[in-house]
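ligand=adenosine-5'-diphosphate
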Amino acid sequence: MVISKDEINQVVKKYDKNKITICTIGSHSALHVFRGAYDEGFRRCAICAKGREVPYQRYKSAEEFIMVDKFSDVNDEKIQQQLRDMNAVIVPHGSFVAYVGLDRIENDFLVPMIGNRNILRWEAERDRVTKLFEAANIRKPMKINGPDKIDRACMVKFPGARGGRGYFVTDSPAGFDEKMKLMINKGWLTEEDRAKAHIEEYVAGDIYCMHYFYSPLTKTVELLGMDRRHEANIDGLVRIPAKDQIEAGLQPTYVVTGNFPIVARESLLDQAFGMGDRLAEVAEKMVPPGLLGAFCIQTMCTDNLEFVAFEISARQDGGTNTFMNGSPYSYLLYGDGMSMGRRYSREVKNALAADRLEDILT
Ligand code: ADP
């Protein structure tokens, strides 16, 4: 049974509002969530998997540590109770979603989280992301309906969190077959993957990942930062001269290994705000209560100076790690030191002051 808003409200009602604890699992973008909670004066609890606690201990991330054998153990009733007893507000991030699992977040994990637990599934399913982009009038890569329809440079993707392994670029049906065979021989794809291939136009451009925060309290979308990602091995491959690339016969992969901050041309900001505003607006109607808290639109900017969006994160994205102490954009709104993690804690503080904590939690 899906956890209802009413059930969460019942939990929140029993909370001691003077003793809220900001909590997440120790992975992904937890460091600035905890630092931000500290800066805003909250208690902090880190849930750490044994063997992965070092950064959170060394950076003194939390007063309280819950150690688990594996992250999915946070679903154990005992741990859930422990979290509710400390008046925990969970900040969900990419690893939280991946390790705890969508089904469990939707059905079993009865601890209030800041954000919309029901929209997390939407970012994971390409058809649903497409629906959101279409409703929000956000340009996305054109979909090609099958390998035999390939008539231009295409990016071929496969479902599941593979970090881009097995993705390839081709420009013809014969090229598709050839690369498919190559990937199968490498053991990166199987024959069954052929039917699951998602083929879209290759967008020649430059990556911009836009990090927004939507506050239901002010009904405003804030653009707090932007990043690009470092991807192995594509970012290393392009340092080899073309001739050597051909000789080496290496296949590109798109596994994110890190991020770096970026600012866009100022004249592009109108577009960035438009995309964020429209996505938040349609999400509120399509998946109520919408995109509460952090979300990210991952785009390519073309030489026509147009953003083409290829993915979203419906929660805090890892690229927010590029502004643990603020970005040029968060500086414009908040002055020094506003990370995405801190913005979450600021939202909790504002909601407490307005006696509206229920409005930001699901
Ligand atoms: P994953 O979900 O596995 O991370 P993405 O959809 O984010 O995969 O794509 C991985 C990378 O591939 C992107 O960061 C970008 O570099 C590149 N990419 C994705 N879609 C396109 C596209 N349509 N055209 C050009 N490059 C793309």
